[in-house]
Design brief:
The chain is mainly beta. Helices cover 0% and strands 35% of the residues. The model has no long low-confidence stretch (mean pLDDT 88).
């Protein structure tokens, strides 16, 4: 069995009228690192820069389909659209 999405499932095997079952929980591979690109940027007032967050597992594989929350060390700058920087 190969997990294809996070969640729970019951697997049942049947032979000669007898069956057995197992409960299987599939969990997402945990995020081990977040890499923001570009690492540094210069932005003029009124202009924007596109930042991208790449999530990776412990083996360095890129993870997709995960939510990313953005935050700034400056309370009034910069503004961030809902889809991210």
């Amino acid at each position: 069995m190969t997990g294809v999405a996070a969640g729970s499932v019951t697997i049942t095997a049947t032979s000669e009228g007898k069956n057995g079952s197992a409960a299987v929980n599939v969990a997402n591979v945990p995020v081990a690192s977040v890499v923001i690109s570009p690492v540094t940027a210069v932005v003029l007032v009124g202009q924007a820069v596109q930042l991208t967050a790449t999530l990776k597992d412990a083996a360095g594989n890129v993870l997709t389909g995960r939510a990313v929350a953005w935050a700034s060390s400056a309370g009034r700058w910069p503004t961030c659209p809902p889809q991210g920087w």
